[in-house]
Each structure stands twice: as C-alpha cells, then as structure tokens.
C-alpha cells in the first residue's frame, strides 16, 4: 500500500461555549484535519490542534504539510507510521520538535494509524497494542460563568445525573472575568458546584491561562480546592514553570495536572525528571499524533503516573483520545466537550455513543469515524 494524496483541510466554526472576547487568542474556531489517501482506496483522518487568533497556526500547519511533509511521505507505506514519524522528526530538525511542526506531524501520524486499522480490519486501539476495554468513563468539560455560580453548578449537575465520572470546570467563559482573580468569589464558585454535583461525582478545576499565579498563590488556591475534594488541579502555573510545578506538586495533596501544552515524549520526560505533575494530559492533536502519545502513555505507565487525554477540538481528536485510552491497562477516563460545537458533535456521521456516562468504542476499523461530508463542506474554509 502506498500513500497517494495528503490533503490538509482548514476548518472554521464559531465555538459557542466561549463568548465574544473568549474566542480571541486561544481555541478560536479554527481547526485543521488531514485526509490521507492510498492506492488501495483506503483513507485516514488526523487532526492538528491549531487554535490561534487569526488562523495563523492553521495556515502555517497547512503549509508545513503541503511543502514539507507530503513530498516526504508520498509513495511510502502508511502502515509503517512509526518509521515515517521518526523520518519527519528528523526532517523538521531545524524548526521542529515543538509547536507547529509537532501539530502537523500529529495530524499525519493519526491519519496513518487510522489507515493501518482500516487496512488490517481492526480498531485503532488494536493497532496500538490491544483493546483493554469496551468503553471508557467520561468527564464533562465545562467552563465557569463567574457571574453566575448557580448556573455554572447546574451545568455540572446535568452530567452528574447522567452518570459521568466527573465534571471539569475551566478558566471562565469571559477572559476579563476569569476564575482565579478573586479568592472569595472563587471559593463560592467551587463550593456551589460541589453542592450541585453532590459528593460522588468527581470535580476537576482547570485554571488555564487567563490568570498568572506564582507558586504561593497556587498553593493557597490548591488547598482551597482540596477542601471541596477536587480530583485534580490543572494548569495552575504558567506552562514553562516546571520548577514551580514541582514545588506545587510537593505542597498539595490534590493531584497537580498539566500537559496539554507539551510536545512529544521528550517534554513529558522532563516533567517526569522534575516530578512536575501528578497527572499528565497529553493531547493527540498536539503531542505528535497517536503513536507518539502511545509513547507518552508507556512512559507514564512504567513510572506509575496517571494520565487522561486532553481533548477540546474536533471529533477526530475525540476518537483518537478514545482509542488511546482503551489501548492501555491504565486508561481510565476521557475528556468530552459537552457544549454544542459543530466540529465535535456534527463532523462525524455517527455520533459518539455514550451510555451511563461512558463512551463506547466503535467496532468499525481504524478510528471508527466517518466524516460527514455535508458538514465538512460547510465548515471547510476553502469551500
Ligand atoms: Mg486545560
């Protein structure tokens, strides 16, 4: 089998879960998926997470794929996805290893794993070593409305009632009114949510990028969320402060989580050496694709570290997260964005099957994902 065509497709759809200014500077409505075709009529899908204010990351990744990656993998056997990954890692020596180059490689790698599954007639999780589970518990990923603790708690209650493992609340729907700016308001928010979801649903707190704390304040906030039995405390410090994360992890009982901003197994190896997180959150659409994320998962396993895939972008990454989670004995939870979003909920022809708060692994080969061409034609920017 040979790769014949590589088509990066820039998508755009407004994200209704974030209001106005919240769409600036982070996860805007831009995303990129790639379709890789072969001479045997099999094709695969992959995703690069390309959040950027003006779509610059999406266009840059498309260029990297068109000019850099496609000529290197055309004619190659897609089933040798790992050899091709190493080849591309070497080819991006001068500008890669993190950021855009890793996004581009992520999309390609996941598409090749999808193709391998379809070629062998097995689900992607089996391509990656085996299927340990038929379903995986979910947590609902939600945002704080700092103006309205009751309404925020109500969002969580809905998923607690549906049997979700947990609910995670992040940063704030409006950047100028973030979680973390006012201790009293923050504690009132966490207390209201805990009361709403009850004692049996896990509660995760995601601080995010709208506030910049140093270690002592992060410790103070961490001790506060511990009082409400938080299951993890996410991105409480700036991304590059690994020494600060190590100090935070030593100071708190609640597991300190981050990793959505880390690239390849090498970044996670640094986090490991510094003991800078208790729970890792690699994102398949950024870290280097499914096969690279599998390496991160193996590193976590041999060092007895919890991990949960980060997933906030499209249906392709949701499917990738699902297969990765069940491809290891340690996968115990998946992130599922709940707010209405066409790229997560409508881009795939078959909706994700969720029963009692658990997502079922599709039995179709590869990612088990069929892209809805009608929806795709509406959200692709080159339409
Ligand atoms: Mg996060």
Task: Offer a quick outline of the entry.
This protein has 383 residues and is of the alpha/beta class. The chain contains 13 helices and 13 strands.
Overview of the structural elements:
The protein is α/β, with parallel strands linked by helices and 383 residues long. Helices cover 40% and strands 17% of the residues. It has helices at residues 56-73, 81-91, 99-120, 124-127, 149-161, 183-197, 215-227, 242-251, 264-274, 290-302, 315-326, 342-345, 373-379, and strands spanning 3-12, 30-38, 43-48, 135-143, 166-170, 202-206, 230-234, 256-258, 279-280, 306-307, 334-337, 354-355, 358-360. Strands 4, 5, 6, 7, 8, 9, 10, 11, 12 and 13 form a 10-stranded mixed beta sheet that branches. Strands 1-2-3 form a 3-stranded antiparallel beta sheet. Helix 10 links the parallel strand 9 and strand 10. Helix 1 (56-73) crosses helix 3 (99-120). The longest helix is centred in the first third of the chain and has 22 residues, at 99-120. The protein starts with a strand and ends with a helix. The model is unreliable at 21-26 (pLDDT under 50). It binds magnesium ion. Magnesium ion is lined by residues 170, 206, 208, 234-235, 260.
């Amino acid at each position: 089998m040979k790769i014949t065509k590589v088509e990066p497709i820039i998508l755009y759809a407004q994200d209704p879960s974030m209001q106005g200014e919240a769409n600036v500077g982070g996860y805007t409505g831009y995303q990129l998926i790639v379709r890789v075709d072969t001479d045997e009529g099999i094709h695969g899908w992959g995703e690069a997470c390309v959040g950027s204010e003006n779509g610059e990351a999406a266009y840059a990744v498309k260029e990297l794929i068109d000019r850099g990656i496609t000529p290197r993998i055309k004619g190659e056997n897609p089933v040798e996805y790992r050899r091709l990954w190493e080849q591309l890692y070497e080819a991006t020596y001068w500008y890669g290893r993190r950021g855009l180059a890793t996004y581009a490689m992520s999309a390609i790698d996941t598409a090749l794993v999808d193709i391998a599954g379809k070629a062998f007639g097995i689900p992607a999780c089996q391509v990656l070593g085996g299927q340990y589970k038929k379903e995986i518990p979910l947590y609902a990923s939600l945002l704080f409305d700092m103006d309205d603790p009751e309404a925020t708690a109500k969002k969580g209650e809905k998923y607690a009632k549906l049997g979700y493992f947990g609910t995670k609340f992040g940063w704030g729907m409006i950047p100028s009114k973030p979680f973390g700016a006012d201790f009293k308001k923050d504690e009132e928010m966490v207390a209201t949510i805990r009361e709403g979801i009850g004692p049996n649903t896990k509660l995760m707190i995601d601080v995010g990028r709208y506030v910049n704390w140093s270690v002592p304040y992060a410790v103070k906030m961490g001790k506060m969320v511990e009082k409400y039995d938080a299951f993890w405390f996410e991105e409480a410090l700036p991304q590059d402060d690994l020494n600060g994360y190590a100090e935070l992890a030593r100071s708190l009982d609640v597991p300190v989580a981050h990793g959505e901003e880390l690239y390849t197994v090498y970044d996670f190896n640094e986090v490991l050496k510094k003991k800078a997180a208790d729970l890792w959150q690699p994102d398949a659409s950024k870290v280097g694709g499914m096969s690279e994320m599998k390496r991160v998962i193996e590193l976590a396993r041999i060092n007895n570290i919890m991990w949960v895939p980060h997933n906030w972008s499209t249906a392709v990454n949701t499917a990738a997260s699902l297969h990765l989670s069940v491809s290891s004995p340690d996968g115990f939870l998946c992130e599922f964005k709940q707010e209405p979003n066409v790229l997560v909920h409508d881009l795939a022809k078959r909706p994700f099957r969720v029963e009692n708060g658990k997502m079922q692994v599709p039995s179709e080969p590869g990612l088990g994902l069929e892209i809805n061409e009608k929806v795709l034609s509406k959200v692709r920017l080159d339409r």
